[in-house]
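CO-FOLDING WORKSHEET

Operator: S.A.
Ligand of interest: magnesium ion
Run index: 236
Mode: holo prediction, single chain
Checklist:
[x] sequence pasted
[x] SMILES validated
[ ] output reviewed
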Amino acid sequence: MTRPLLATAGLSKRYGTVQALVDAKIEVAAGEFVAVLGPSGSGKSTLFRCLTRLTEPDAGEIHLAGRPFHHLRGRKLAAARRDIGVVFQQFNLIRRRSALENVLSGRLGPTPLWRVAAGRFAPRDIARGRDALAAVGLADQFHQRADTLSGGQQQRVAIARAIAQESRILLADEPVASLDPATANSVLELIHGLTRSAGLGVVCTLHQPELAMRYADRVLTMDAGRLGVRPGASRG
Ligand SMILES: Nc1ncnc2c1ncn2[C@@H]1O[C@H](COP(=O)(O)OP(=O)(O)OP(=O)(O)O)[C@@H](O)[C@H]1O
Ligand SMILES: [Mg+2]
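OUTPUT RECEIVED:
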């Protein structure tokens, strides 16, 4: 593998007596879709929160495109986070704002919240936001308030937000958990297409092994905080 987009070593997190993440090592290259499968409570969301440092890991290193991320603070941390698009298990949309405003707000991304509140966006950003919403099949919902969208539509807004942010790494925590099978497939097809067309590096947790086998280049397992390799899994 050439220099990975995302690389961790020894990433660990404990909550009280629960060792939620143990010595996690993960490497993701540009254009690669890595799936993580694991039972409820095994530490998948903890891994994602530690990768973005929205939760501080107790130990370990994180490198983004070869640059250390684990020790950044303040503005440097905020700037580096723009390389990471996130789709959380709970979608974290701004409920009272439209689909388009949510996409433009970039959860970890460039437009500060006060600008969202003031509705101030550059035309270029608006065009990019509309393109992203159209790409996830929500062209008719640009101006619909997030809290009136269905669960699946909200999840697709969260994915559009990550796309519009143009980050190089996408972390998607169960992005299709609340979707029907056809929509789930189209969302994963979309994310998979982005790994190939935009060279995105993707880490995606999933509950269904068959979806992981279908879309992922590599499948990792998570069990009691430990990452492992699921043998024989690749889509090529
Ligand atoms: N903020 C927290 N405080 C205390 N314990 C926590 C906290 N966050 C997670 N945990 C614990 O850490 C373990 C891993 O949780 P995590 O949310 O990472 O699991 P998960 O694999 O994402 O599960 P699911 O598939 O249900 O989403 C669980 O035992 C959970 O109870
Ligand atoms: Mg979780």
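REVIEW:
The radius of gyration is 17 Å.
The longest helix spans residues 181-197.
[x] output reviewed
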